[in-house]
Specification:
Layout: H1 6-16, E1 27-28, H2 31-39, E2 45-47, H3 49-55, H4 66-79, E3 84-85, H5 96-103
Parallel strand pairs: 1-2, 2-3
Amino acid sequence: MNKISQVELANKFQNMHKENRILVLPNAWDAGSAVIFEKEDFNAIGTTSAGISYCLGYPDGEFITFDDVLDTTKKIQKRISIPLSVDIERGYGNTNSEIINNIK
């Protein structure tokens, strides 16, 4: 697996939005599903908040902790070399500063 910098991946993802074609993001719920999507030649992957929640035994709707989302995201990111867009629902915070910190 190639290690590509976050900046390179972000630029690549941003450029995908400027292309004159539909951007399809399959939604991964764990590292295994993300690897399958990359092997099937998708150019980028999104996460599914519901899928991650269900995979961890919770209903959808921020019932899991942000740490659970972050842990799953880190596991996915370690296994793929294409851009990853993460669904963090409403930001897992009660204030703007908490949400901004989670995004960082």
